[in-house]
Design brief:
By secondary structure, this protein is mostly beta strands. The chain contains two helices and twelve strands. Strands 1, 2, 3, 4, 9, 10, 11 and 12 form an eight-stranded antiparallel sheet that branches.
């Protein structure tokens, strides 16, 4: 009973989830157990580079990285991501994995452009468009298993 009570209280503030995809490799691997703080604890806003959990139209939960924020101009050219005409440095991806065709867009209000770290094997905003802020569940803060890491 005590364990259920503790879990119930913690789940008000945190989301516990398992990564079931390889789109965030090498940051996360399939089967990693993660903890995210709920959206209201982040003031309902997220920064560029934050790793977020969000629900898709069909109710599935995805984990991706927020790349562009409301009002940002996003350009992808020759495998490089540019935010507001400045190259976005991403030390968490392999240089050779971004095979995205060229694209340009301006992010709408209260929306985020999200991408997986494993760009070659990720279904993300390049495929389904921007993510409305209301769909974001929370910000990933920690990988618990295996190899604990705080973000």
């Amino acid at each position: 009973i005590t364990a259920f009570l503790i879990y119930g209280i913690l789940s008000v503030f945190f989301v516990f989830s398992t990564v079931n995809q390889s789109s965030m490799y090498p940051t996360f691997k399939d089967g990693n157990f993660i903890v995210a703080t709920r959206r209201f604890l982040s003031g309902n806003t997220f920064e560029r580079g934050d790793i977020v959990l969000f629900k898709s139209d069909d109710g599935r939960v995805f984990i991706k990285r927020a790349i562009a924020l409301s009002g940002d101009r996003l350009d992808v050219q020759e495998g490089k991501v540019y935010i507001n005409n400045k190259e976005f440095e991403e030390d968490y991806i392999d240089d050779d994995v971004l095979t995205t065709p060229s694209m340009s867009t301006t992010i709408h209000e209260d929306c985020y452009f999200v991408m997986g770290d494993n760009r070659y094997n990720s279904i993300d905003s390049r495929d389904f468009g921007e993510v409305d802020a209301s769909r974001i569940i929370g910000r990933v803060r920690m990988r618990i298993f295996p190899n604990t890491k705080v973000f």
